[in-house]
Design a protein that fits this description.
It contains five helices and five strands; from the N terminus they run βαβαβαβαβα. The chain is of the alpha/beta class. It has a single domain (10-129), classed as Rossmann fold, CATH 3.40.50. α1 crosses α5 and α2 packs parallel to α3 (78-86).
Length: 148
């Protein structure tokens, strides 16, 4: 069980259980699974990030190093989650990577207007998906230099 006060390197915001399982397997296979927290909808993501609702006791200083965000989410969609993250002084520096099945130009354009750091369309093929997640983890957790 995930402890809400553990340091979180990756916040995975994904409502599809199969995609969650594949991502977690890819991170584990590549030894990047130390501190991943999974939420299943946009409302839960915002509550986690901004320490509200069931996450009110979470240590606010433990912001994720990266957020992997699906766009098509229940309750609050991914674009609204992105808008809130990038609109807040304390969270706007967190890298957000949209990892979604949407190839819609309007989603891509709007994501970049809102400040997304990267937009990746999920590969359908399992091996390609695993490689994509591995590359994301290596880049954002090991190579990328963060301001905090």
């Amino acid at each position: 069980m995930q402890n809400i006060n553990d340091v979180v390197e990756i916040l995975l915001v994904e409502d599809n259980p199969n995609d969650v399982e594949m991502a977690l397997r890819a991170f584990k296979k590549n030894k990047l699974a130390n501190s991943i927290f999974v939420v299943e909808d946009g409302e839960e993501a915002l509550n986690f990030i901004f320490t509200k609702g069931k996450f009110v006791e979470r240590a606010e200083k433990n912001l994720p190093k990266i957020i992997l965000l699906d766009l098509k989410l229940p309750k609050v969609d991914g674009l609204e989650v992105l808008r809130e993250i990038k609109g807040d002084e304390n969270t706007k520096v967190i890298p957000v990577v949209v990892l979604t099945s949407s190839k819609e130009e309007s989603d891509i354009v709007e994501s970049y207007k809102l400040g997304v750091n990267s937009y990746i369309v999920k590969p359908v093929d399992f091996d390609k998906f695993v490689n994509t997640v591995k590359d994301l983890g290596f880049y954002w957790l090991l190579l990328n230099q963060r301001p905090y």
